[in-house]
Amino acid sequence: MTMAEATASELEIVEPTTTDAAAADVAVDGVESNLKRTREDSDDEEDGVSKKQKVDAEEKKASGPVKLGFKSFASSVEMFDYFYNLLHAWPAYLNLNQYEHMMLLELLKNGHTEPDTKIGGGIRVFQVRKHPMWKSRCFFLVRDDESVDDFSFRKCVDHILPLPQEMQVRPDANRALGGAKKHHRGKGGGGGRGGHGHGKNGGSKH
Fold first, then answer.
1. What element of type H or E holds 150?
2. Which of 69, 113, 165, 200 could crosslink 106 through cysteines, CB 3.0-4.6 Å?
3. What is the DSSP string of 158-197?
4. Cβ(135)–Cβ(182) under 8 Å?
5. 110: how many CB neighbours lie within 10 A of its CB?
6. Which residues, 6 or more positions from 115, have their beta carbon under 8 angstroms from its beta carbon?
7. What is the value of pTM for the model shown?
8. Strand 137-143 vs strand 148-151: parallel, antiparallel, or unpaired?
9. Which of 25, 139, 26, 161 is nearest to 87 (CA)?
């Protein structure tokens, strides 16, 4: 065997065949594909867990329970009913007691969109009064500087725990209520008892 023949023979031995090269490429592609699929599956699982946690958190927020002041409320409707009943049971222009004062103060702090502005320098007393514009019973606060302001307990509750759609404040609700109540003005604070539907009170615009 000549030197040239030996060299040619060695080259044939070390040179990979086309079939072997193709098989190697397929193997590499397969590994990369599996790695990509594993990453995608992992991302899908993480997204799924994240989305589920987000949904669970939103449902928990909407359903409670929420501690407010001295009480714990299991739902927005339960919280609404508490303040609705207080609004209609408490005599007009009578300062609320210390217990209810704290409950309303906590409602403002946690539910009002601008609690610092509404509370101001401090609230001396809360009262139930008939709103001069909307002709409905409404919670009023008297600050330490003797300034007076009203607020909507319904909006505060809805901000803490979203109310059912039919119980939320409608833009035209106060105007409609004012028109319907004009002939009851002579009855004073007790006149608000005439409408016990959930959509009839919390007439404040703030």
1. strand 148-151
2. 69
3. HHHSPPPGGGSPPTTHHHHHHHHHGGGGGGGGGGGGG--S
4. yes
5. 16
6. 108, 109
7. 0.56
8. antiparallel
9. 139
